[in-house]
Amino acid sequence: MSEVSGNMYSLLAERSIHDRMKDREVPYNVVGGLGLHAVTNAAKIDWDNRVVCLPNGVDLPRLRKNGTVRDLDTLVQSTDKTVVKSCRQEITDAIGDKLVVSAFGLNPYEKNRRGIFDFVGDRYVDDEGRLYWRLGGIETEIPPASLDQWLVKRDGETVCAILNPIAQLGAYGCRSITGWRPKDTEKVEELINAIMPNRKISDIPQECRDQYYTFREQSRKVAEARQKLGWFGLKAGLLSFLEHQEWAVRLAQGELDGVLSGFVGKT
Question: N or C: more exposed end of the chain, with fewer CB within 10 A?
């Protein structure tokens, strides 16, 4: 049996994840830590061709520093649970137990309109194909282009498809009822530096700025609701407490990741 690569990029390339997934009936995007790591460690971000080019020596270890196996979280662009399950199985067949595989789809717009028990935001799509980000009953329409596939390439080889840098930033900013999560602060700062090195909106290509503005609008709405008394504010306070507890963060990165996913969310 061949040796398993300790580098996630090498592992995905060796297991031909993109080749296996690109012919599925719906597009996919690897989300979460891998996408952010690719953008913040890129040799080049090619906005015109939607490609993140990695330097040959870049490494994202398969194991975290605490010894737990990293997640491979995948957004499947469908509301059909059968399609999502099939895509998850495709990835699992390729990866096995070398990564913690999860896959989730888009939510039908009519689902969970009030979001009483929501702690994290997610993407919803209506019958007309309009896309929304919703958290706790607060929603904002976001551009469909925020789901466009961007390819991660290393040494000319395609590793996988991810979300574009702006969509990643928006997801990190809007996924938690508490706003920016403490454990993400450093990573998000690196992402902002990669996207806007001069801290100016002009750093973002014109065609991508609507994504930036709509995600920021959703974040503003949630921040306003968080300041008010009531159930929304209580939920935000509870999650903020958990996010600042080291034991809770460790649990979310270990065996209870699936149990806690409703609180920590995927991006």
Answer: N
SS3 assignment, position 96? coil
Tokens of 226: 């968080």
Given a contact cutoff of 8 angstroms between Cβ atoms, the answer to whether 45 and 194 are in contact is: yes
Count how many domains the chain has.
Answer: 1
Q: What is the pTM of this model?
A: 0.84
* DSSP states along 177-238: TTSS-GGGHHHHHHHHHHH-TTSSGGGS-GGGHHHHHHHHHHHHHHHHHHTSSSHHHHHHHH
Residue with tokens 């717009």: 109
Distance CA 74, CA 11 (A): 16
Q: Does some domain include residue 3?
A: no
Domain that includes residue 241, residue range: 8-264
The reported pLDDT for the residue numbered 170 is 96
Does residue 158 form part of some domain? yes
- 127: which DSSP letter? T
Average pLDDT on 111-124 reads: 83
Q: Is residue 2 part of a domain?
A: no
Average pLDDT over residues 203-208: 96
Helix (H) or strand (E) holding 255: none
Distance CA 182, CA 6 (A): 27
What span, in angstroms and rounded, lies between the C-alpha atoms of 27 and 38?
Answer: 19
Q: Does residue 163 sit within a domain? A: yes
